[in-house]
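Q: I'm writing up a methods section and want to include an example of the input and output format. Could you take the sequence below and give the corresponding predicted structure tokens, formatted cleanly so I can copy it straight into the document?
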Amino acid sequence: MGRRVWAALVVLSVAVPVALAGCTNGKAARLANGAASQAAAAKQVPPTLAITPPAGAKNLPVSTEIGTAVAGGHVTSVTLVDSAGTEIAGQLRADASSWVPSGPLRYDRRYSATVVATGADGQTATRTTTFTTMNEPGNRVGAGLYLFNGNTYGVAMPVVVEFSPGVPARYRAGVQKRLFVTTLPPQPGVWHWVENGTQAYYRAPEYWRPGTRLTVRVGLEGLPMGGGRYGDSDRRAAVTIGSKLALDIDNKTKQMKVYENGKLTRTMPVSLGKPSTPSSSGTMVIMDKQVTTVFDTTAELGPVEGYRVDIAYAQRLTWGGEFIHAAPWSVGDQGHRNVSHGCVNMSTPNATWLFGKTKIGDPVIVRGTEHRLEQGNGWTAWDMSWAEYIKGSALPVDVPAAAAQPEATPSQPTPAPTA
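A: Here is the clean output for your methods example:
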């Protein structure tokens, strides 16, 4: 019997620790689960969201955007409605710093905005604001867009926006933020301001790829632009880049070479500007084409030195009046000597053929003349290196990237042409 009792005691002594161990593990699990639940609850914090304009703001420009600042999440919706309950279309900027209405807001109108941000765990934060836009201003800055909806342009066509009067330097960054360009296929690009602020160009590091689709919005209506002036309108264009055609004109040889898609297709004799009125050397862009026009310099040079002459197949290169055009009177000089007032003279058959090939936006390189092309005398966006070009941006340039049916009526004054 003593042995049986001992055996039972042994069994109990073994069983007790097992029971105790099981009790300890359950408590630890409950503690661990509680801690996990507390940690999960601690992590489930709604994102922090702040928006602008501040509630009750008045007399705001019709270019107003809904500013968004989020920590711990991202903006998932923005709703903007006017006082009649009409919802306004728009989209976030790429950096989500603000939501941009797709068009200018209405003057003297009340708006309400609701912004929702969502965190990684699905929790949301919502903010609302109301504001009122200003009355329509009387003092405007005219803005022209040198792109016309549906047109096809050459590979060197910059997006050109013109301002009258010019934009003061301290306002250019704000204006530049309202110049939107998208390209398909994507190609990076940067804006560059002409020194006096009357024009801004947008181009890529290299010529546009043939077939590129450019969509542009110049969203300036109501934007403050300095001197008590506001942007006059929004302008849009969607255009296509055509095949690659480039002209290379060498003063030394007095020859023009025409390249189509990189292949030399024709060489033609030319006469450039004589030493007293030299042609400009540099990379230019065909800006305009006229089958017939009249060059009249009598108002500028007077009745003695001035002239008035009918011109055929004129293609503008500079604001200063340099063109490529037919000049039957100088055929004997073409290929041998320069006799023009700064233009590129060609025979009528050659000028006719060339006119049928070119597009506005095709690049034209002139080499070896006595005069260097002046920046801003034409669309000179390509007459500088990329490193030099991006210095003209009013915003920091980290990577050469950026991101439309104009009613644009370019208002650039046209100096007298040269023949």
